[in-house]
């Protein structure tokens, strides 16, 4: 036999052992939960208002597929046969076996039909996904349960009672009893299974849950010892405790919340069976049916609310993680962009020694002026970076023209005036630097329209371009040149006021003068 054949045989044996284990575990769970569910059966019938075994069987089919049906079938057969033998004595054993077989078929088909309907019509994939799909799934489960309940009610009416006098009561109880069991087990099981980490109790939850349990215990003691407290007061106390369940939805994990709900249901069931609490009435069957409705609503809403809360938390964590990664990536981009720009500035300073320190001065002063104008943080940063690389286009100007000590010829000056256009060509290919390219392109425009390269005037000139223009002129006037000395503070201020409304924006001259005076 080949190696692959031996491996396949071993896997097959392992799979059979696993299925056998699941079979017995499911059967034990089914029988134990059924024995508990018998306490909620209507008097004189085998219909239970809260039938947990249906929830266990349905959930097993959902999780493990159709192959676990024999365990569900056997469990339903054995427990129904047991109940009929104990409840009735006027029929023969053959009839009881027949009835138990029919009901077992109904219970098994309930789970199988439910899975078929969920897979076919709701796209249910063993987990809750969204409210619309969940509601559709609940509706399909109700249909599947109705089919099984109809089989059970007909069987009970014909073979046991011999009439249809209690048919609708049995149908109603059976239908919603199975449904209550399913929505009690299925949502909590799937929600628990969806937890990424194995659950462990947190120490902070223990004292809180002990206090919560104490409140319920106190309620039961008050109810059963029949202190001089009216039923109305007990009912008020009982409803008040619902707020603890709501609190648990937000405070605890899904497992802790499930335990609290079970404590709540235990108190409700015990009090109701002893004719106390909001569901108690003269008729025990009616009391249990009222309790059943409460169970259905509580589990439905608590499970879906908790699921929504958990999903929102997960989405929030995903958003925060994505934001952290995006910010880290953005920081890397900013750092690379800054390094590239500084490298370009270093190249320019080698090409034109005059620009050494000039670009940084213009950047720092542009940032101060933008802050003085109370621009946004984004615009302040734009002013800084535009000021830092405003002369980058001069790299294409020949050194003999750029460093000429005397006056430039008209032809040479035309070449110099091309440096804003060169800078725009350098930078406009980058979407992130497109705005900065525009500011640099217009930083030699004049307020009166006599500047270059486009000759635009007034407020048509971008504000940041106006800022760089006046700062650039200030640094030029306060720097030593081969053909002139730097101007004094008074001379610079006088020149700026003279050029207000001509070269510079009148709105920028006064703030610029304030900055100049602050430097002294």
The overall average pLDDT, rounded, is 76
Low-confidence stretches: 196-201
Query: Which structural category do the helix and sheet elements fall into?
Result: mainly alpha
Q: Cα distance, first to last residue? A: 96 Å
> Helix amount, in percent?
over 70%
**Radius of gyration using CA atoms only:** 41 Å
Sketch the major β-sheet: none
Number of helices: 20
Q: What is the general shape?
A: rod-shaped
Strand % is: under 5%
The total count of strands amounts to: 0
Secondary-structure element string? HHHHHHHHHHHHHHHHHHHH
Key attributes of the depicted protein:
single chain, mainly alpha
Describe this protein's structure.
With 520 residues, the protein is an all-alpha fold. Helix content is 73%, strand content 0%. It has helices at 3-37, 52-64, 69-87, 93-122, 131-161, 167-193, 205-225, 231-240, 242-251, 254-273, 284-351, 358-372, 377-388, 399-402, 410-416, 419-427, 434-441, 463-477, 489-499, 506-519. It is rod-shaped, with a radius of gyration of 41 Å. The protein is built from 20 helices and no strands. The longest helix is centred in the middle third of the chain and has 68 residues, at 284-351.
